[in-house]
Design a protein that fits this description.
Strands 2-1-3-4 form a four-stranded parallel β-sheet, with helices on both faces. About 50% of the residues lie in helices and about 10% in strands. It is built from ten helices and four strands; from the N terminus they run E-H-E-H-E-H-E-H-H-H-H-H-H-H.
Length: about 220
Amino acid sequence: MHFEILVEDRSGKTMLDLLIPKIISDQHTFEVYAYKGVGHIPKNLRISTDARKRILLDQLPKLLRGYGRTFAGYPPNYPAAVIVVCDLDDKCLKAFRQELFAVLNACNPKPETRFCIAIEEGEAWLLGDIPAIKAVYPNARDNVLGRYENDSICGTWELLADAVSSGGSNGLKNRGWQVVGREKSVWAEKITPHMNVDDNDSPSFRYFRGKIRGLAALKAQ
């Protein structure tokens, strides 16, 4: 099976490029596409923003319609699916999922699609594997890591920064959001290779892993 995976930023792509081969066998193929922010699903599903800005949710209606037409032309022995991965941030999970499915249900034909939400942020999937963090940052602050509750709404990237970065999250913020973004990519690049995808405490990561493997197993039958 082929997977087209859409993520909202560069650090998400870095993480998934390394994680997907750990989740499914190499008989499947995948491509991860990074966008430049999550944005918002447009009202009435009408695209009004500049596609060149590459904002994920702003473009999602157009993207899923395009995938629906493209996948409809694929031969039966070459199935494909779209996986949309984005952060929950401070949204209501139930309402957000309803919005996402409204976009999918408006497509004709509908592409095979799964929506996977990192709760609260992508760094929650890293924090679901504390041994992987400690493998890279052996001096990570245990008092910070120890107070984290998996998939809690707590300022996830800030907590990871407070655990592993000199100066913590405030130090990164004071250096600007570009520095924050680069540091997130560094975490993804360094920690992800050490992650055990079969032993992760993040419920949202386990949901993502299950959806990927479920599709791969279904299409293998």
